Amino acid sequence: MLEVDLRKRLGEFELRAAMRVPAAGVVGLFGRSGSGKTTLINLIAGLIRPDSGSVRLGGQTLSEGVAGPFVPPERRRIGYVFQDSRLFPHLRVLDNLRYGARRAGPGAGAIGLEEMVTLLDLAPLLGRRPHQLSGGERQRVALGRALLARPRLLLLDEPLAAIDAAHRAELLPYLESLRTRLSIPVVYVSHQLEEVLRLANELVLLEAGRVLAQGPVSELSLRQELHGMLPTERVGAVLEGVIERHTADGVELRVGAGTLQVSVEEASVPGTRLRLQVLARDVIIATQSVQGLSVRNVLRGAVTRLRTDGDGVLVEVDVGDGARVLSRITTQACAALALRPGMEVWALFKAVSTRGHAYHLGATLSPEPPAH
């Protein structure tokens, strides 16, 4: 486990951060540019020293204030992948990877060179030098080199920030495959919520050098602290469900006490867990069961919370088993429906046929059939 509780002042900026990262899994560190994300992971890596507080990894103290113990970066066994790959330009890809393998510390179950080449699809690149690679290819090599050193912790500092959208989409599946293969803690830094929601198990929200909240992704997707960091149209709830069966258009996903018809890009067997975000603007609230509509995705639930903001009212609905969705409606609609906590309602999901309306984390909502 990684335990951080520290303070650092850099000019006018002051970071005061405390967080805990489990022994395995991905923790997304999310915040606006300038919130202190890179400063925080540089403190963890030992690239800068805290003014006070400590960094502990697996029970070992890596840093403690300005006069306490301080383990140099090269002895911390922490893998660090920067926004730019920082590969050795004079070495071929294979030699960059071998450099990481030569620095490997002890540890069973680590990924070997051959397996790493397969996992990251690096075989066609082994004879090339960094200047002959695309941005996404360079980051794949940087990931491989960092992991071949058998780190106890992996830090990813916005590894997709310098890559165009097409190459970013290519790299994300590789990161997903590593997430399931790794047995070490990973801190993934980003100001792009789509990346964090797709990869992370937990989320840490950082704002102006302070940790506002930490918890499971689905829980924090409902929090006002996160909503304040997002454009209004990107606010939504993260749902997790289990595939029950395949349908003509995709799969039937058990979510809460109901099911959703979901389209998936990759073949998934029943029992597979999927995660998706449903935007608040794409959810309609009804106070009675609705029939005769083309909408195929409807979940029955109860209002748990109403929150007014500058764009209307956010309605939080519990749809069973702890799963919750959000709907944004006008103040007038809220009054007309006489919504109140505990009231039974039906959440209707609009057609979602493009990622512009709802990005997916392994799945997207199935589009509505055409009206007749």
Could you outline the blueprint of secondary structure elements for this entry?
Elements: E1 2-10, E2 13-21, E3 25-30, H1 37-45, E4 52-57, E5 60-64, E6 78-81, H2 93-102, H3 113-119, H4 135-148, E7 153-157, H5 165-181, E8 185-190, H6 193-199, E9 202-207, E10 210-216, H7 217-220, H8 224-227, E11 236-246, E12 251-255, E13 258-263, E14 273-279, E15 283-286, E16 298-309, E17 312-318, E18 324-329, H9 331-337, E19 344-349, E20 360-361, E21 364-365
Parallel strand pairs: 3-8, 3-9, 6-7, 7-8
Antiparallel strand pairs: 1-2, 1-4, 4-5, 9-10, 11-12, 11-14, 12-13, 13-21, 14-20, 15-19, 16-17, 16-19, 17-18
Helix pairs in contact: 2-4, 4-5
Could you explain the architecture of this structure?
The chain is α+β, with helices and mostly antiparallel strands and 372 residues long. It folds into 2 domains: 2-230, P-loop containing nucleotide triphosphate hydrolases (Rossmann fold, 3-Layer(aba) Sandwich), CATH 3.40.50.300; 234-365, OB fold (Dihydrolipoamide Acetyltransferase, E2P) (Beta Barrel). It has helices at 37-45, 93-102, 113-119, 135-148, 165-181, 193-199, 217-220, 224-227, 331-337, and strands spanning 2-10, 13-21, 25-30, 52-57, 60-64, 78-81, 153-157, 185-190, 202-207, 210-216, 236-246, 251-255, 258-263, 273-279, 283-286, 298-309, 312-318, 324-329, 344-349, 360-361, 364-365. The strands form 4 sheets. Strands 6-7-8-3-9-10 form a 6-stranded mixed β-sheet, with helices on both faces. A 6-stranded antiparallel β-sheet has the order 20-14-11-12-13-21. A hairpin with a 4-residue loop joins strand 11 (236-246) and strand 12. Helix 2 runs parallel beside helix 4 (135-148) and helix 4 (135-148) runs parallel beside helix 5 (165-181). The chain starts with a strand and ends in a 7-residue tail after the last strand.
